[in-house]
Amino acid sequence: MNTLQIVRRLRAFEEGQPLPHGETLHFPIADPADILVVSFVRMGGESSPWGVAWGRPDRPPQIAAVGEPRNRDFVADMLTDFAPTLLKHLFHPSFAHLQITQAEDPRPLRQVWLPNSTHLEMLHLLEYAYSSARFGDPARAELLRTFGRGCGWLFRESQRPGQSTAMVATEALRESFVFPSEDSRQGHLGFLLAWLRAVGDRSSRLSAARHAERLSVATSLDPELERSELDPRVRAFNALRGKDASALARAENAVRELLRPELARRFDLTAQAIDVMRRDKRRLNRGLDRLIKESNTEHWSEYLRLEHRLRDADGQRVFTPSPETDHNPSIAAARFYAIESSSELKEALLLHDDAELLEEAVAAGEAVRGRIVEIRDEGEGKKTRPVWVIQAHPGSVVRFREGSSLCVHGLPKRKVRVRSLLSDSRGIELEVAVTGLLTKNGKDLPAGTSSAADPALRGTTITLVKDFLDGIDFLKRRKLWTRGTPGAWLTGARPAERDVVEEIVDPASELVMGAE
Amino acid sequence: MTTALAIDAARPDLDTQLEETRRSLFNHVASGGRLAVVKAPPGSGKTWLLLETVAHAVSGGARAAIAAQTNAQADDICRRIARDHPAVQCARLASEGHARPSAFPTTVRWETKTARLPLDPSVVVATTAKWGLAQLAAAYDVVFVDEAWQLGWADFMLLGQVSARFVLIGDPGQIAPVVAVDVSRWQTAPLPPHHAAPAVILRSRGQDALGLSLPGTRRLPWDTTGLIQNFYDFSFGSWSGPGDRHVRPRKGTAHRLDSTLDCLADGTVVAATLPTPDEGPPLERDDEVAVLAAEAVVRLLERKSVALVDGDEAQLQPEDIGLCATHRVMNTAMQFALPKDLQGRVRVDTPERWQGLERKVMVVVHPLSGVVRPSAFDLETGRLCVMASRHQAGLVLVSRDHVGDTLDEYLPSAQQAVGQPDLEGRGHAQNLEFWKALSESKRIARV
Prior knowledge:
The complex is a heterodimer of chains A (about 525) and B (about 450). The radius of gyration of chain A is 27 Å and the shape is globular. Chain A has about 525 residues and is an alpha+beta fold. Chain A contains 13 helices and 13 strands. In chain A, the strands form 3 sheets. In chain A, strands 8-9-12-11-10-13 form a 6-stranded antiparallel barrel. In chain A, strands 4-3-2-5-6 form a 5-stranded mixed beta sheet, sandwiched between helices. In chain A, strands 1-7 form a two-stranded antiparallel sheet. Chain B has about 450 residues and is α/β, with parallel strands linked by helices. Chain B is about 30% helix and about 20% strand. Chain B has an 8-stranded parallel beta sheet, with helices on both faces. In chain B, helix 10 links the parallel strand 15 and strand 16. Chain B is globular, with a radius of gyration of 22 Å. Classes of the chains: A alpha+beta (about 525), B alpha/beta (about 450). At the A-B interface, helix 11, strand 11 and helix 13 of A face helix 5 and helix 10 of B.
């Protein structure tokens, strides 16, 4: 937390209410028809769900629950009710009407919203449980495997900065507001919503938030409810198994009746969070168009492409990611680059269209504001090589170093490279060489753009922000997948007859590192 | 008041060991060995060994590539090749945006196009980033990676397009590659893309890598060597012995730091602490500590201190002293606390930027000063190790006085994935050991 963020938190405390964070909204919100809200509950100590609620945020949810969550067949049957809805929502080729066959295919933005991070973790647990499921009826097992892979992709995608598919309500609210409370309490969705929706002064809001906090929103249930009310009903259900079917059904219903309001509350809170965000008057950040495009690309390359291959495999083995980690070094490195690049892209795009984020970046030393005090052109002949000397504003913190690539805020095509960075009692002075947009000509430039060597720029105040090197991660990933290189043994790749670009390999048929 | 650090100062025959290491590496490269990792303590001559091996390989007809981690390091390597190995044909491969530095050796070819690189026996120097994305006409016989512990495994894999054989040399105690994204997915990966490449190699099975280490440090005084030894998983010595290094302030007892600085005459490390305020220490920027650090520099110079380094005794100049803190805001505060005539002469920087540099005396702010609830990041010892290993004759640590108590009261949470090393716990133990060694030797003074 930098100084600016601390000041904002204190201001929220002073005003007794959450304050907007950011001049713009930093993620899109899909239409209600394209949002699937999902919430889970589980038995204490168990990793599989006891019940699940799902549906559109503007309609009552569908709710499913089982009498005994420790029985894998009961849970599997419950999830086969939910699985087709999720898979259709993800445009799975076997479940969706709209067939997507490449990254660029147009599609509506679809999102899965979850109450908080414990529900997101449940997706990971479902991937562990079902992505290799073989038990029971083969058709059910196949559906569960497909479901497990879908959950796994959603979970992995949720870790990618800038994604807009797997949305966690608490994180969305925290990204959009500064709450007057400790971080450790901000994982509770009810707590955050009470701060936002309660009316009255600080104490009324605080009281509402404290009250809301008493009701569990995580996947785990209130231990008292589980111990004193649910446990007897589960025992009754188990005692009737293998006996009277109608009595067993009644016993299962008795369990469901207790779980239903728990699931519904989690679902409703998530729908409320979506409603809060939808009513927010702030405009969407202009960088989101590009981020959605990136999400579509990831959706295709990391999920749908694989599912198409599996559907068309005809008995052949097809690579599927491990729920635990990436065992293949090239896959691990490629995903690492993708995550790094997504993080940089998100940061760079949002910053250019949000003055508040820019101020945060300046306070954190990730951007620097200063006055151009000297301009010279080191070019020879017709070639221009403008160099600027910039005196940073007093008190500036700079986390850049010599060699850092930056760009001018508001003019991202004008790129500079830091040549030297001197700090003394007068402040920080940067000498930068302008490396991009040297002239005043170019596409989509703001009116009044000067050439970088224009002496009139002297005395002007500019802000330099980190530059995003578009396409570098793609180049790196392509290098990783290039076969036949002298050091191919590093990636465990086989020598190939031709170069393969970004092909997902089957680790089972690849050499492991160091073994030839 | 103080005693010498209670450290075993046994001095094995370092020259013989160094020669053995050098010969082993020469033979490994000459015989076509695929992978070698050389662990080097601070100031042990790793770049010297790297260049010796490169020169030997090139004289045997090899085309060698050197991968440095920054442009500044690559330029420096070229200067050293031109100076120490003038017979070796050398080219510097740089991007077009990186201008040829002034006074760059004329004997080193400056190229921005890979197609114009020499194809005969020679060495080409570039950054890892440049090598990783270059389009090469022909593979190199071997790639030498300098400062290899700063290179992540993912980036190392990209060097596979340059050559099939690699020699990695670096300091395992230095700061690990900076990772700014969530890497939990690869916590248990067999080859984690974000981990330092040599660490991955040494930990993995079936690598068949030649593992070597340099036997000692030329930079560090003998007692500092013992102090930082616990940051390393291999033992090393120092070419200096007791009495070979010291800083001796000539006169003066008037200042609050004077008696503390006097201790540098009989041991090369001393810590000065300020009381921690009841309401807790300031976060990140602690102006009182910054002033104390600046005062240490000023008093060393005002008292016309002399530094003895391997037989050469000379009065300290501002350029002989460095200041270091982990946060930039703290470095700025120290910069402002220095008198104007010292600004720009006494280098002030972060540990990341001090890597590879040295001074006769370093004045450093302990990374845990002001940190009362340390995180795993705070306990990672790379920064402390870098800060405590830049000096040749004297190290002055400044800090709030809570550090010992903070470490005593801290319980590592062991949140690492199953089967993974407890880096937080290890960092805590190493930090504690470091502070304890200073405390037991009575080299911590409250001012």
